[in-house]
Task: structure prediction
Amino acid sequence: MPANLTEVNAHLAEIYDLEAIDAVIGWDQLVMMRPLGGPLRGEAVGTLSTIMHQRWTDPELGRLLDKARDDVASLPEGDPDRANIEVAIRERDRLVRVPTELATEMSRLSSLAYGVWVDARKNDDFAAFAPYLEQAVELRLRYVDCFDPEPHPYDVLLKQWDLEYTTEELTGLFNELKAGFKPVIAKVSANPDAVSEACYHGNFPKAKQHAMFVEFARAMGARDDAWRLDETVHPFETAMNMDDVRITTRFYEDDIASGFFGTLHETGHGLYEDGVDPALARTIIGRGGTLDLHESQSRMIENLVGRSRPFFDYALPIFQRHFPEEFGSLDAETLYRGANVMRPSLIRVEADESTYNMHIALRFEIEQQMITGDLKVKDLPEAWNAKMQEFLGIMPPNNSDGVLQDVHWSTGSFGTFVGYTLGNVIGAQLWTLIQRDLPSLDAQFAAGEFLPLREWLRENVHKTGRTYGTKTLLKGLGIQQLDPEPLRASIAAKATELYGS
Result:
């Protein structure tokens, strides 16, 4: 390896380590830290953000990367050394446009605003959170101004998360989804009592839920010596590296479904990080891939696996062993049907497959309006409620179940919601390939055998980390463009099965 490449890789490995420290701090704040720690934690996060930004924008790193570009140019596309340099160059080119002071301010506000959001959501107090959200929007507008003009300013925020689809392309996708799912939603709304989730209601102590959820995550491929599951307000996954994966969920002691499917969702994320080739450790590409690919994995495990009929042949005995009183007299069909209730609902993370993308369409449109200045923060609750009525035909009774329900804006994560819908679409397209290559999938799920699926995903999606962008990885698998039809068709078929023709 050329000496210059060794030197630049050492510099990038230090950045990887700093990002791992940042991930630990973020996990601790959301899981372990007590409320009074927020303000000073914000200062610590700001300091760390400054250091990371300085390391990325160091002129010496720019010089090393320029030389390394020539060193790896002759390597084949997809070679880890070449990909590591190319991704680092792209990341640095973005960060050098952002003043260190702005990067620090954004990180500090994110840390401070999270605690305010937690209290505001708990107390249904949008007014308390609004000033922080106004600051977050203002900082994102300053961020957008750091870059060359795009056809839409929202495109800058999408690129921040390595999303390769434009605002215009996503608008077309959501228009297709809204039109395609309108008859599905009408079908289930016409027969709302056909399916009931009552089987998931009862008395479920947290400790027993945790034990059961860990058992399911382990069956999917979680390693006891590398993973952990904790409780938080809003479920998430983070990884320090492929051998240190943290997933979280929330526990409702009268309703086990939320925590269960939330755990499956985060397990999908964790499997992506766990599946990255260990040879990529401490490289810029040594983490799970793009946001939309990541969401394709979480939504796949949650819905295409965890809400499939064969899955419950395996799951029922586990539910019964952990909670014999609640599930002892039930059958797998009842659990399957209860897991697939479809109806318009208030909370995105608990929305069914037929309505979920309407929740994302709402956020996609509102975020654009905030970034263009067409919607002020003070008017956000009213706009939110109007779109809930338009898209889903329901009205939130309060802001906690409405505009305050998501953590994303408290952390400044504008532009990320669309990743969930992209993940749904991409996951369904990948599923057609998986079913082709694993024809015994249903029988394997019924028997609790999930490792063949995990190995397919590891080989075709996970192991290369950030080596490929979404479009390149999908094209390598034969998927030339986004197609929402597999997603629509599968959910429409399930709606017909459960709610009638």
